[in-house]
Design brief:
mainly alpha; 434 Repressor (Amino-terminal Domain); 2 strands; globular
Length: 73
């Protein structure tokens, strides 16, 4: 399985926000923003902060997909 924060980046564009705005509004660290930029895992508490700050659902922030087995070979 793999994780993507693409829905979040689209949501930020729709709201006219950038990553720095998100960082301040959700009270999250630069490290969390960097990890999301690399599609790395972040803790659920951070996702909760983002959802509350943006008044959105979890699936507006993150999507999970099954990696194609051929891509890993």
């Amino acid at each position: 399985m793999a994780i993507s924060y693409k829905p979040l980046w689209h949501l930020l564009v729709e709201k006219g926000m950038n990553k720095e705005d998100l960082k301040r509004r959700a009270n999250i660290t630069s490290n969390i923003i960097a990890r999301m930029g690399k599609n790395s895992y972040i803790n659920l508490e951070s996702i909760e902060k983002i959802c509350l700050a943006l008044d959105c659902k979890v699936d507006d922030v993150v999507s999970i997909y099954k990696e194609d087995e051929n891509e890993t070979e």
